UniProtKB/TrEMBL annotation:
It comes from Mesorhizobium zhangyense. It comes from the Bacteria. This is Ferritin-like domain-containing protein. Signal peptide: none annotated. Pfam families: DUF892 (PF05974). PANTHER family: PROTEIN YCIF (PTHR30565).
């Protein structure tokens, strides 16, 4: 941990803490995605997860870039929220034999992750602007846009999955 809430006094402190939170979250997501790639049965979903793994590596680099621009060392802080989301994703998908139901569960879990990231990047970009750091905000918005695009793609896949089931 190392950064307890009592240490957060200014918006700048909160910005750095939240940057550490998303840094930790992105690294956990990077670790979780290969498992999700293995489990996915739909080819488009598999490819989508593979693409997002590459994007996630880019997100980590951009967060490191923001740390550097802000003059603080890049480090993560435990984020029980993302740990819980990923743990639940693993548990729910672990027992499903039906391929379409499994894919539906994976899509739902991935969207939960995306929404978590979207709220973090949205907040961080807004705070960066308030702190007069439009340069940091611009980098954070790049991650935000990619998470939003991934979320939209997952919605398309989810709707396709439902249609497939309906056709049977
Ligand atoms: Fe990400």
């Amino acid at each position: 941990m190392g950064f307890f809430s009592k240490d957060i006094k200014t918006l700048d402190d909160l910005f750095v803490h939240t940057l550490q939170d998303i840094y930790y979250a992105e690294k956990q997501i990077e670790k979780a995605l290969p498992k999700m790639i293995d489990k996915a049965t739909n080819a488009d979903l598999k490819v989508g997860f593979q693409k997002h793994l590459q994007e996630t590596k880019g997100h980590i680099e951009r967060v490191e870039q923001v740390f550097e621009m802000h003059g603080v060392t890049a480090k993560g802080v435990n984020c029980p929220a993302i740990d819980g989301i990923l743990e639940e994703a693993d548990e729910v998908s672990g027992d499903i034999d039906d391929k379409q139901v499994l894919d539906a569960a994976l899509i739902a879990s991935a969207q939960t992750v995306e929404h978590y990231e979207i709220t973090r990047y949205g907040t961080l970009a807004a705070w960066a602007k308030q702190l007069g750091r439009d340069d940091c905000a611009a980098v954070l918005v790049k991650n935000l846009r990619e998470e939003e695009a991934t979320d939209k793609k997952l919605t398309t896949l989810a709707e396709g999955n439902i249609n497939l089931q309906a056709a049977e």
